[in-house]
Amino acid sequence: MIALDFELIQGSFTLDIHVRLEGRAAAIFGPSGAGKTTILDAIAGLRTPRCGSIQTHDHVLYSSSDGINLPPRDRHVGYVPQDVALFPHMNVQRNLLYGRHPGTSPEPSRVTAMLEIDALLTRRVSQLSGGERQRVALGRALMSGPSLLLLDEPLAAVDVPLRRRILPYLERVRDELGVPIVYVSHDREEVQQLADEVILIDNGRVMASGEPAVVLG
Amino acid sequence: MDAWHITWFTIVSATAATALMLPPGVAIAWILARYRFPGRSIVETIVSLPLVLPPVATGLILLLLLSRRGIIGRFLESLGIDVVFTWKAVVIAMATMGMPLLVRTARAGFEQVDQRYEHVAATLGARPARIFFTISLPLAAPSVIAGAVLAFARALGEFGATIMIAGSIPGVTRTLAVAIYSYTETGRDSSAFVLLGISAAIAFGALWIANKLSERRPA
User: Fold this and answer.
1) Which candidate from B117, B126, B135 shows the least CB-CB separation from A73?
2) What is the rounded CA–CA span in Å between residue B90 and residue B187?
3) What is the pLDDT of residue B50?
4) Is B138 at the interface with chain A, CB within 8 A?
5) In total, how many domains does chain B have?
6) How far apart are the C-alpha atoms of B123 and B31, rounded to whole Å?
7) pLDDT of B219
8) CATH no. for residue B186?
9) Cα separation of B35 and B46, whole Å?
10) What is the ipTM of this complex?
11) Which of A99, A203, B15, B184 is placed for a possible disulfide with A144 were both Cys, Cβ 3.0 to 4.6 Å?
């Protein structure tokens, strides 16, 4: 469960979000500039709302009334930004292990096997293809042992054939590791395949939420 | 040999000055690149002041601060440390004059580091110090090193501030720049020309390295 109940002001743009996400994979769907990425940034602690609260099933991440605002490092949220932001000066293995906490993180071999990136460990980031970058970034986020995974347009930068190849990896993450996913998308087909819940955002507000088939028609 | 002693003393002093200014210089560059705070523009101005102020004026300020009657000098004297007209004054003059070049170049490097990397590192559980040393500093390293080399080159040629607080004491505080001036003034032109050649060669090498490093900016 993720309860989002906050207002965030960014210049002249106001994000006013009140929604509960119960599913294993929830998609935030909407046009460019609707505020989708800002929602992920707020959950990750990279932007601070003006007021309200952000809670996961076992943590209060932010609450203006209780004076709580956990720093990003304490939120246990795996975040894969749209440009994936793999550390360019580290190889794949060092990227993967950057956020690893022995004890709470999954076994590296399990993650690399699931995402089929074992063969890439010694490669430099600049030597990876678009799809490989996406999978390594996903692996890096998972390796930190997150209790929630935030993906910003995970398939936007890849072409359709590659998209079809990466989707099953996201389904595996959702099903095998049991980490809830919140992800931003503007692709109907992708949302219907991966998400069991969708919130429709426009101009900083929730227009509708529920099952993809119902919300997206 | 006199020329070699002067050259060696100048290089060692410039190296010590660079080492002395690196920690505060990099910290100031990082703070100016990443944080907005009241008084930020004042800090920026003070750091850049030695670039535009006449070096002898900067030297006079240092003299006022470090002489036995100065605020810092009085404190240092109570610890038994004498600065003015010693090699320490040479190093301080060099560090003060080189600092703006280090800070400005390193700051530009930090500003070029995409903050997304730092944000992702934070979500992966890294504390600010770890983010700085494992992400920001390595990605800005070419600029930080280029800034340090520029500051080193500037330190090698330092004259105005040095002559004010360290003087020109042969074998004690006489650097390449100061020696060139002294030799020319006393008619020892051939000695001055030898030191001129050495200065030009070192400065050329340092600038060439700094330019090469500046071209190697991170992707």
Assistant:
1) B126
2) 25
3) 93
4) yes
5) 1
6) 21
7) 42
8) 1.10.3720.10
9) 17
10) 0.91
11) A99
pLDDT tens for A168-215 read 888 888 888 888 999 998 888 888 888 999 999 999 999 999 998 888
pTM: 0.87
Domain extent at residue B50: 2-114+143-215
* Exposure b/e, B116-132, CB count within 10 A at least 16 = b: ebbbbbbbbbbeeeebb
Q: What would the two tokens of residue B30 be?
A: 């990082």
Please give the backbone phi and psi of residue B184, each rounded to the nearest 5 degrees, phi first. -65, -40
How many CA atoms does the CB half-sphere of B116 hold within 13 Å?
14
Give per-residue pLDDT as tens, B52-82.
999 999 999 999 999 988 899 999 989 989 8
Q: Has residue B119 been placed in a domain?
A: no
pLDDT confidence of residue B216 = 65
Asked if B218 has any chain A CB less than 8 Å from its own CB, the reply is yes
In the sheet with A60-63, reading across from the earlier edge strand, the strands are: A68-69, A60-63, A51-56, A2-10, A13-21, A205-210, A197-202, A25-29, A181-185, A148-152, A77-80
How far is CA B205 from each of CA A6, B28, B104, B152, rounded to the nearest angstrom? 57, 27, 21, 11
Examine residue B50 and state whether it is found in any structural domain, yes or no. yes
pLDDT value of residue B122? 96
pLDDT tens profile A28-80? 998 888 999 999 999 999 999 999 999 998 789 999 999 999 999 999 999 99
Residue from B124, B134, B135 whose CB has the most chain A CBs within 10 Å, to mutate: B124
Q: Is residue B19 situated within a structural domain?
A: yes
Chain A's closest residue to B135, CA to CA, is A87
For the cut 60, the answer to whether the pLDDT of residue A90 exceeds it is yes
Least confident of A128-142, A144-158, B117-131: A144-158
A205 DSSP β-pair partners: A16, A202
d(CA B186, CA B174): 15
Which residues from chain A sit within 8 angstroms of residue B117, using beta carbons? 85, 87-88
Say yes or no: A73 contacts chain B, CB-CB below 8 A: yes
CA distance A211 to chain B (A): 29
* Residue range B96-100: mean pLDDT, rounded: 95
The full set of domains in chain A, from first to last, is: 2-215 (3.40.50.300)
Tokens of B65: 């601060």
Helices (H) then strands (E): counts for chain A = 7, 11
Residue B77 belongs to some domain of the structure: yes
CA–CA min distance B211, chain A (Å): 21
Q: Which of A38, A40, A41, A46 to mutate to test the interface with B (most CBs of B within 10 A)?
A: A46
